[in-house]
Amino acid sequence: MISVGTESRTRFVLAVVLAGWCSIAFGQPDLQSARELVSKGSIDKAVAILRQMITADPNRADARMLLGTTLALEGIRGEAIEQMAEAARLKPTSAQTHNAFGTVLSRFVELKAARREFEQALELDPSLAEAHVNLSLILAQVGDFSDAAEHLDHAIELQGNSPNAAYPHYLKAKIWGVQDQIEKSIRELQKAVQLRADYEEAWSDLGGMRRLALDNAGAIRALQRAVALKPEDALAQYRLGQLYLQNGDSLHAINHLKKALAETPNDRGTLYNLMLALRKTGHVEEAKAIDKRIAALRQQDNRASEVGFAASGLNNEGIQLEESGDIRGALAKYRAAVDLDPTGYGFRLNYALALCRLGRWQDGIMELREVLRVDPDNVDAAKALYVAVDRERADPGDGAKN
Predict the structure, then answer these.
(1) Is the residue at 159 inside a domain?
(2) pLDDT, tens digit (0-9, with 9 covering 90-100), for 266-306
(3) How confident is the model at residue 18 (pLDDT cuts 50, 70, 90)?
(4) Are 188 and 158 spatial neighbours (Cβ–Cβ below 8 Å)?
(5) Residues with Cβ < 8 Å from 158, sequence gap 6 or more?
(6) Do 276 and 333 reside in the same domain of the chain?
(7) What is the DSSP secondary structure assignment for residue 264, as one 8-state letter?
(8) How far is CA 276 from CA 4, 202, 252, 268, 279, in A?
């Protein structure tokens, strides 16, 4: 399943602010000043200008759209959505406005509402490639790969052989990959890197897919390009190291596996392959040290399994109490589960949500951020965090003290 992480969403929203929206009147000096401030990162100054413009003329849909999208960059959920909703009300026949509104809703994990806006945008303008891509992401997240691929095909047809088309080709490759259609995935990835030679993620995935297709030489070439473009990509380094080891080139394998391990120090696959490569090159003592690290991680897993079983019992008791309406009792059970197993992020999420239900926004925000630190694609935690931050801003004296 394809997920859209926070960083990629932020990049897309910023691109909309700076490059999209052909319906905006560029001749307006105040709006242009605000756009320039956003491009320079002076968000507070841009927001102040935009609010002044809206106060002077509440019907300025362009100003509301820019304000809503700018606020979304800052994670200000409530006002961002309100401004975008009002912009869509003022310009109900603007496909660009509905697409931008959908993008902001996606930013705050309001996926059903975002889907409606993207569909509305395409009803108004079927040639809006960005809306096709955006809708495909929503559809893929809910497992509707067939419709997602269809919208990507529309986007590709509309964008032609421009560099912009590299992204829908990459997404379509992901869809084929999830369905184990390796050759089809490879073709899409090849097209993506043809259109954008610096597309590191596509080069890395191309290497991974070529390895599955037993094309080791082609896989190595693609992965060499990927790590040259982005040396800190642990997955690309691991893939390349694993291939070198498989081909009997243990010295090169060690180099890349160590680079991968620097980014992901407890990754078992990386540790195991590095241990094998060290043994094959005669680095026996270093291999033994890696073997001890793997054994220690196994022991931690065994202990975590025992602790996790007990913590799960407490968590289930908390769920039962919450279902009966005893949120404070549930909170105590969730807290006990987290104390017993701090790495149980499902327990921590329940604890965070209970804190929020009791109005303890600051404490809830802290716990939700910890969940997202480890699991950045956790949709429930991300959505809850945006809501909690909104509520905490509205009532800053909430009650971390309650």
Answers:
(1) no
(2) 898 999 999 999 999 999 999 999 999 989 888 877 776 77
(3) very low
(4) no
(5) 127, 129, 132
(6) no
(7) S
(8) 35, 28, 13, 12, 5
